[in-house]
Amino acid sequence: MFNTIHHVAIIASDYKKSKHFYSELLEFPIINEVYREERKSYKCDLKVGGSQIELFSFPSPPKRPTSPEAAGLRHLCFSVENVSKAVKRLKKKGIKCEEIRVDANTGKHFTFFKDPDGLPLEIYEE
């Protein structure tokens, strides 16, 4: 019935800062960007492999209540070939990462970092 995830939507408290984070630091190409005057909102579509991130701005969005155990989406995970190499690239760009861990079930390496709004992001070795 379902084939793949088409997109994940993220609402940013500081659109310019988050757009820079996702498009420049994480290097996700921008597919399309529009300003929706009637909603006073930007929408930026970013390519992530065969999926997308929809990055939104809205006036005065509420903060996330807790991290990462708030009800709803816990975190967003990106697959990488090598977690150690990905962490080195992120750190060179000033992005703090947690210690690399090993998944007890799969033996794969993974770690977490956060976007400008504190959204938990994970990288997981393929």
TrEMBL record:
One of its GO terms (molecular function) is metal ion binding. Keywords: Metal-binding. The keyword Transmembrane does not apply. Residues 4-126 form the VOC domain. SUPFAM superfamilies: Glyoxalase/Bleomycin resistance protein/Dihydroxybiphenyl dioxygenase. This is Glyoxylase I family protein.
